[in-house]
TrEMBL record:
Transmembrane segments: none annotated. This is Beta-glucosidase. Gene3D superfamilies: Glycosidases. InterPro entries: GH, GH_1_N_CS, Glyco_hydro_1, Glyco_hydro_1_beta-glucosidase. Its EC number is 3.2.1.21. Keywords: Carbohydrate metabolism, Cellulose degradation, Glycosidase, Hydrolase, Polysaccharide degradation. It catalyses: Hydrolysis of terminal, non-reducing beta-D-glucosyl residues with release of beta-D-glucose. NCBIfam families: BGL. GO terms for molecular function: beta-glucosidase activity. It comes from the Bacteria. PROSITE patterns: GLYCOSYL_HYDROL_F1_2.
Amino acid sequence: MAAIPRLPEGFVWGTATSAFQIEGAVDEDGRGPSVWDAFTATPGKVRDGHTAATACDHYHRYEEDVALLRRLGADAYRFSVAWPRVQPDGTGPVNEPGLAFYDRLVDALLDAGVTPMPTLFHWDLPQALEDRGGWLDRDTAHRFAAYAAAVADRLGDRVRHWITLNEPFEHMALGYALGQHAPGHTYLLDALPAAHHQLLGHGLATAALRAAGAPHVMLTNSYTPAIPYSGSKADTEAARAYDTLHRRLFTDPVLLGAYPDLDGFGLAGPLPFVKDGDLDRIKAPIDGLGVNYYNPTRVTAPEPGTTPLPFELAEFEHVNTTDFGWPVIPSGLTQTLLELTADYGPALPPLWVTENGCSYDTAPDADGRIRDQARIDYLEAHVKAVAAAVEQGADVRGYLVWSLLDNFEWAEGYHQRFGLVHVDFATLERTPKDSFDRYAALIAEQRR
């Protein structure tokens, strides 16, 4: 085993999942349809036509999965609440059987000594709200706050750690700008209102959670260092533009109360969808900032006339990649945590690595053992990257592996396996991988 530097006393270790990717039971307990139900039902949208109708069947097997968390020795479990299960149409009274599922899950986690960390929105918008405009409609932000209040009213006596949104950049970019994820729109820069309305929803939900007595509220963004393809001025400016769109657009308003300059995107002056008072609501104090990190992004200046954006993405050369084709560059996580620390200074709350993981489709051996050494190497290197950032001054409070289980990986269906636990999607049998045992040993080592 590689030696892992000791993280500070009280550092939190755990795993993460999301509702649509693991729960299944899409037609049970009064749950309404989500944008992802509609997207997966559209031919050609998801690889091989896979759906999440059953997924990992976590809805029925949650006790088995909580037992895995106990066996792992996890301090915390980040899961998401399915908005359509709680409010089938995204508004109005709660669906009692749906909310009762999360009651049972939270109680099971607490009984197992695992801290529940629910995320209120992980991309599964109720389809009824999408039919009214989705996140392009300002009213969705207010509906989200009402939903947050309803969940907090039910679970707030036992849940202390809340996350409002997961990766609003990806949801805007892939769901509203490029059409690769639900709801499947291709609006390009006209998708920007979906960015603002998600952030407004975060601010309004934060206020609702505070009113319910929530002591710890976070927002989770994806972060990726923008690496210029070369040292040229054009590539450097392209990388800066990408960083503005991916990082600063979703972080500056929350921590600084202002949007970054978007002149390079042809958006000079005030953004028309930002109303008086919005930025004050978005800047409501938070207790932590979630960092989802997978890899850096290499950026180059575009050829004239090839794209309406001031950048293009380029491949890294001579680096290992995961089965997803993502480059494995652990130093990018150290860079991410230190850049956030340097750039936001005293405005930055404590950082949490709320997702970090890799896709490797390592099959069981003849003896049933899953020897996923590549995942072990990945996780060890990235935990060391967190430790390096802490040593250099970053205030990082926890590390959550994506993911506890192999699951439904959005547009890739069941073709990408991120789990510490192998799931046979025919039988739903769970088999902890070697990486599960290594992570359990790491957690135990850190506690000695």
